[in-house]
Amino acid sequence: MTSTPAPGGGFADLGPLRAQARRREQKAWYFYDWANSAYYTTVLSVLFAPYMITVAGRAAGCGDDADDTCDKTVSVLGLHLAAGSLPFYLTSFATILSAVILPVVGAMVDRSSRKKVHMAFFAWTGSFFAALLFLMRGDQWQLAAFCIVASSVLAGCSLVSYYAILVDISTEEERDHVSSRGWAFGYLGGGLLLLLNLVVVLGHDAIGLGTELAVRISLLSAAVWWAGFTIIPFVWLRNRDPVAPVDATGGLWQRSFGQLWTTLKELRRYPMTLTFLLAYVFYNDGIQTVIYAASTYGSKQLGFGDSVLIATILLIQFVAFGGALYFGRLAARHGAYRAILWGTFAWMVIVVVAMFLPAENVALFLVVGVAIGIVLGGTQALSRSFFSLLIPRGREGEYFALYNAFERGTSWFGVLLFGVVFQVSGSYRPAIVSLIVFFVLGAFFLLRLDPERGIAEAGNEVPRTVRS
């Protein structure tokens, strides 16, 4: 039995056999969220930066106890960068580079009948570079600097194909459920490996390892996890012919960036899609900055030690698993649009409450962590699925590349505001509450969005929950 597009871009009645086949592919698809989240949690969020500062600090002459206050420099392509800031410069450069490269990948994905192959290729190549982080030791940081940029960019490339596959394996009615479950799997998988790695790093003496070897093994484990679990979607997902691909003309530049320019111009035909992208840029930047600033706020303003901060990181990770599933249920009853809007209001409340948290009150800090976890998983999962309804069929790669490029290219706004407010006020309390502006702007654009109109204009079937 074959699937055929229904009028308006949806699916015809595919029958129980086809529905069963879709569910089987959806379960396989979840495992790429499970696979790549280990890289983002263990490597990018927790272990890489402090370890690279230590290694680069030795090379710069800061000694074995270098931290992010080490201002002695190392040379990177002729630039003299403070060892204490090196990993942050590298991840920022990877973010900017991704915003340039992802449109090329998106244009390629839309014309390809092998999306899962592209996803796996980028994942396995990225995990290879991530595995090379194991070689960072002593004062040898140079290879790791290249590898963290390469692995981060390749992870983003793999997600363009992965997000595009979501549209192939789910109907419009199923999209929120599938995206939420995938995101939940990601938080659970990333959280489990992070927990194991923190046990190894913090309890290294009990298992006969040095601190740095324990960190290096943990970095390697994230690469192996990423590569190993990618096998599941690679084996069980099906390749599909592209839907109404845009003809490729001209050279590589014209076929990629030229098509990106065409896509940007075409957004004028989809004003609701553009409105959502603007909303997403603001509220997602706020989310990312809250996560980035939480440990700094907890340690510098509220006076918590590493044990409390680590426990909070793990708590958020596991609560976000339930949060993604909970928001999936909200979307099933009220639609993704309403759930995302409610989520932005919840973020406003969180940053206001965070401003007034008393110092050294662990219980209240953990309560805010639970609230962050609930809203974090839900808003991110439903943003992905809702955006998939606002883009024309056959152009998923391009539009998701644009989605990721917008996210990565603007992710520094919140950090900049947080830093400026702290510098002016001398306190992290006004700095954390200043982030409310991103959620207010996100809600402003969401309130200007007509979801039913946007989905219909993109040629997709309007889900029942949106119409109700």
TrEMBL record:
Keyword vocabulary terms for this entry: Membrane, Transmembrane, Transmembrane helix, Transport
Signal peptide: none
Gene3D superfamilies named among the record's database cross-references: MFS general substrate transporter like domains
Topological relation to the membrane, as annotated: Multi-pass membrane protein
Keyword Membrane (UniProt): yes
Gene Ontology molecular function: transmembrane transporter activity
A Pfam family per the record: ATG22
Domain Major facilitator superfamily (MFS) profile: 272-468
GO cellular component terms listed in the entry, alphabetical order: plasma membrane
InterPro entries listed in its UniProt record: Atg22-like, ATG22/LtaA_families, MFS_dom, MFS_trans_sf
Compartment(s) where it occurs, according to its Swiss-Prot or TrEMBL record: Cell membrane
Stretches that traverse the bilayer: 30-53, 86-105, 117-135, 141-165, 185-207, 213-237, 307-327, 339-357, 363-387, 399-422, 428-447
PANTHER family per the UniProt record, alphabetical: AUTOPHAGY-RELATED PROTEIN 22
Name recorded for this polypeptide: MFS transporter
Source organism (scientific name): Nocardioides anomalus
